[in-house]
Specification:
Elements (H helix, E strand, L loop, with lengths): L1 H38 L9 E6 L5 E7 L4 E7 L4 E3 L6 E3 L3 H7 L5 H11 L5 E3 L9 H13 L5 E5 L6 E5 L5 E5 L5 H4 L5 H6 L2 E6 L6 H11 L3 E7 L7 E5 L2 H8 L2 E2 L8 E5 L1 H5 L2
Parallel strand pairs: 1-6, 3-7, 10-11, 10-14, 12-13
Antiparallel strand pairs: 1-2, 2-3, 4-5, 8-9, 12-14
Length: about 280
């Protein structure tokens, strides 16, 4: 009887040893993989992602993470840069847009939209001064790790206040600040170029049903910063709709502008339909 108990105890110990050495690590790796699959939405380790950051009440920065070149580029927008705020909320210094977004109960979305509207940077992800963000946890963890392992020589910082794109001038409030005075240069847009557009070379058609001047042109400008080429902007009668994207790379374009994706493809082309509801949050 005692021999049998010793044998059973020895068998249990052997099973526990096998479990801890072989089975548990497999379960742990699978669990981590499932966790990241659920909590990671944008970072795939191949494509660039860009995040708008507001730290305190000072400058606004746009960070571009490029896993292909293993580079992190930070574009700093002086906080005293005058911008046209999205959603028809007037003209402000960009350092004040975050708080306006909080007041309007839309959070950092307003800052991302405003940066996209004024600078044509293809951004939709944001981080706030108290850690507020729309970046999923899994993406945050992977981006943090990527930034930590990126060497200093692969980190580039560009202050737009020292470029020809913005100039120090008297603003509409009578005080000195910065104004956007020129078109965005290729020296800046190169950081946002998406290789998928070069590979697919899609024809991009924009159907403008907003009834508002300039909306479709800015949307086209953002897409061209990404590396696309808008071939046609067709104006039509104003329609009470938001925006719809179809064709190749439709999901990539749709997430930048928070649009819906239409089923099906139109060859190798992209079609974007913009309505009055989209113009209201432009």
């Amino acid at each position: 009887m005692r021999r049998k108990k010793r044998f059973e105890k020895k068998q249990r110990s052997r099973f526990i040893g096998i479990f801890l050495r072989f089975i548990f690590p497999i379960i742990l790796i699978a669990a981590v993989g499932i966790f990241f699959a659920i909590n990671t939405k944008y970072w795939n380790g191949n494509s660039k992602i860009s995040v708008v950051e507001q730290s305190g009440v000072g400058d606004v920065s746009v960070k571009v993470y490029d896993p292909v070149l293993d580079e992190v580029t930070t574009l700093t927008i002086p906080g005293d840069t005058q911008v046209s705020v999205s959603r028809n909320l007037g003209t402000l210094r960009i350092k004040n847009v975050w708080q306006l977004g909080v007041n309007e109960k839309v959070g950092g979305i307003l800052l991302a939209e405003t940066v996209r509207k004024n600078f044509l940077f293809p951004v939709f992800l944001w981080r706030g001064p108290q850690g507020q963000t729309n970046v999923p946890f899994g993406d945050r963890l992977l981006v943090w790790y990527f930034e930590k392992k990126t060497k200093n020589l692969q980190k580039t910082e560009i202050n737009l206040g020292e470029s020809q794109y913005v100039k120090r001038q008297k603003l509409s409030d009578g005080e000195l600040g910065y104004k956007i005075v020129g078109d965005i240069s290729e020296r800046l847009t190169v950081y946002f170029t998406d290789p998928d557009f070069s590979k697919a070379s899609p024809g991009i058609y924009v159907k403008d049903l907003t009834g508002k001047y300039g909306v479709a042109e800015v949307v086209g400008g953002v897409i061209e910063v990404m590396g696309g080429k808008v071939t046609t902007i067709e104006k039509g009668q104003a329609d009470d709709s938001d925006c719809l994207v179809s064709g190749v790379l439709a999901r990539k374009v749709a997430r930048i502008f928070d649009c819906k994706v239409a089923p099906g493809k139109i060859g190798n082309d992209i079609e974007i339909i913009l309505g009055t509801s989209f113009a209201e949050r432009f």
